[in-house]
């Protein structure tokens, strides 16, 4: 019997991805206190992703990981969907409207099953109740990531991509 949405287990908070994030109603910049990130802006500004050249290999990263020992320490290209995993959260409970009493640090990853997420070392997002700033756009888009495949420290059987460079896959009908 196929699973209905009501029967699917809720993902752990540390494994939620961009498309799972609850959407808060938009608030105007003037609604926030002076110490909030929305008042300070993102520094540096996120790097825009170039569109991948049509000749770029789009090998899914889960396929790369199945041969990870062969690729260990070597430059690889892997495709996947951009997502976020939680690194650190501070603050708890509800804030007074317009104040920023929580902070978040998120790791940008390539999302994939059954192997989990592939962290893109050095690409992160940070923010507070008012705004989130990311090194690159992290909107659930399809990308190719090129970097050095390494074992994740302290996580047996897990991998990460160091020195990642990303390009966005053009899935438009004309491409």
Question: Can you offer a commentary on this structure?
Answer:
The protein is mainly β. It has a domain at 13-18 and 43-91 and 102-168: OB fold (Dihydrolipoamide Acetyltransferase, E2P), CATH 2.40.50. 8% of the residues lie in helices and 35% in strands. It is built from three helices and seven strands. The chain has helices at residues 37-40, 61-66, 68-71, and strands spanning 50-51, 75-90, 103-111, 118-128, 132-134, 142-151, 159-168. It has a seven-stranded mixed beta sheet with strand order 1-7-6-2-3-4-5. A hairpin with a 3-residue loop joins strand 4 and strand 5 (132-134). It is globular, with a radius of gyration of 18 Å. The relative contact order is 0.22.
